[in-house]
Amino acid sequence: MASKAQCAFCFDVLVAHFEDRSSLPLSSFEGSDSAAISELTSSSSSSVSSVDTGSFSKVTSANHKSHGSYPLFVTWNVVVRGQPRLRGCIGTFEPQPLERGLRTYARTASVAFDDARFNPILAKELPSLECGVSLLMDFEEASGPLDWEWGVHGIRISFTVSGRRYSATYLPDVPPEHFDSKEQTLESLVHKAGFSGTSWRTLSIKLVRYKGSKTSLSYAEYVAMKKRV
């Protein structure tokens, strides 16, 4: 399952980039997350988050071991007045060895190599950043575009128009946070795929649904965990 230690590792990959050093291994953060975050919370109380379109694999929760291989996404948000704003998000549906995959996509999402929607993250933004890690599982072909459960499934659509193939995905938490219905979600996803033509209802959409385990971590929490490494 996704863990705060994985988010802390992603933060260290980003910080190491700015400090021109090698990041610490994932194992350095494992086991230190609960104590460090509890300590941070107590201290605070007393003082007053483009997609790689690789093929889908049948990955179930039974396959999820602590250092296995997973389809995964890394999300960077900048938090402004308590509200998260998307700063970068990228991942893959091809299972990746956990540490290598997190390292690759933490860096790729932050420097916007493959996503023209965002500018590279700057060092001065670090204190306002939040990192989210999503590990994906239970991929199933849906019977139609509406055959998925709101708030439970992530979805990936694909369709072909005039010989050109389009595809895009939303992670499980995206529809409830940004849309009011499945229909609105699909309309947005079609546009995210780069298609600006007719309504999604006129398209021959293939939809794959999946589930995910996600957690997130603030920069302050990362700093607290780093002190315990």
UniProtKB/TrEMBL annotation:
Residues 1-226 form the AMMECR1 domain. Gene3D superfamilies: Hypothetical protein ph0010, domain 1. Pfam families: AMMECR1. InterPro entries: AMMECR1, AMMECR1_dom_sf, AMMECR1_domain, AMMECR1_N. This is AMMECR1 domain-containing protein.
